[in-house]
Task: structure prediction
Amino acid sequence: MYRGLKKIELTVLRRSLDYWGAFELSQELEFVIRQGEKNDVFAVTPEAKYYLMGKEPEPVTAGLHIGEIGKKQLNLSLEGAYLISKMSDRKKIKVVGQAESLVLYGRDVFGTSINWADESIEQNDKIIIANKYGEAIGLGRSRFDYSGLFADRVTVNTEADLGLYIRSQSEF
Amino acid sequence: MASKVIQEFKADEKVKGLARKYRYDEYMVARFARFVPDLEKFLASMEEPPRTYIRVNTIKVSANALIKRLTDKGFIVKALDLPDCLEVMSEPYSIGASAEHLLGLFYIQDMSSMVPALALAPVPGDVVIDMAASPGGKTTHLAQLMNNEGILIAIEAEPARMPGLMLNLGRCGVMNTVVYGMDARELSKLDIRADKIMLDAPCTGEGVIAKDRTRKTSRDISDIEYCSNMQTELIDAAYECLKPGGVLVYSTCSFAPEENELIVDHAIKEHGMKVEPIPYGEPGLRSFGELKFDPQVVNARRLYPHIHGTSGFFVARLKNV
Result:
């Protein structure tokens, strides 16, 4: 069943978006939740939201999957990361062209491949890995704080990447 | 099931020779000989590797910005007359493996497959239905023409094709879709009336032989009849859900008139629909063997590989008057 967000879920969503520097998205977009074992959050148009509420038969999916919402945080999807990356640089690193391809094959990020990073990044932060245009190509976790991110070693673990699309194509 | 008259023709020596030369079943070449202009050139063109086209996803990027990014990476692309359509002239590596593709900045799609969404011409605020959505080429195209606004109901009957559809919708940043896994012939169960409907119907796929050579011999007359019957049921279901004044675009990637003109002829005669002109391709057929079609059917359009440089395609824009 698709439903709107409860007050507590809206708070969690806003807090998570704020972490990424994209609080405004919570005001600009409409969101629905598909209730199940995981509570998936989707960004939808107002018309789609109106249509979806309590609809039978239940649609398979709707709108753009932003992530899964838990009691404390929103686990961002890559689509959600892309949306955020277009409006904010918070908790983001940008990698050079060659590293872009490596990230898309799931490889971790070498510090020498990073040409820009947000100064607020701390050790073990969830971060957006972006290309030189600032577009999210992956999600990762920092091994060091900002000052250690540029060292000549792996400084960011890649946890999800857009290359999954190619790697999963044989399944379709 | 509606009863159909599938046309069969005796193969003469020329047809037999061409069927042998290009390794087709004779019945197919005998049928092509009745309506395809410049038959041997047509058959030869199907042996050529298909050209690569991409559609700029204007939800995420402008054509100029995409061209610059691809050019910087060594791709050579050429803008064509069709809106948002680029032809890939040269690629240093597969363009499908580029970050721009993974980011959803474009969709790899034959130029002919871009015509149906342009013919439907949805606008923000329309209620639109895509009756056979996967893998999502036309669905994402419709979404971008709608400026990612309003509501687009996407139907896919085959569960195995659903993950590909969902992945492409996500990749392209589409927010206005509601996706159903159901047989589109039961569309009326959704109790929705649409301003515009896209019916890119399942077909025998004669038009994509250049991409899949097995289709020269893997289909027979019974497959055309099966598809034709299903297409009739699908267009009937579409009509039931179309608002008065609404528009339906019917398309296939088949050359078979029983899957194309005959279905449009049915929509005219059974539902009083009007066929509106489309500014691409060759006119629809007036007749095929013993089948005579309503004069309006010529407003439908056919695309041929040897004339248009695309896969084979049929498209018709029908208005519910």
Summary: The first strand of chain A starts at residue 2 and ends at 3.
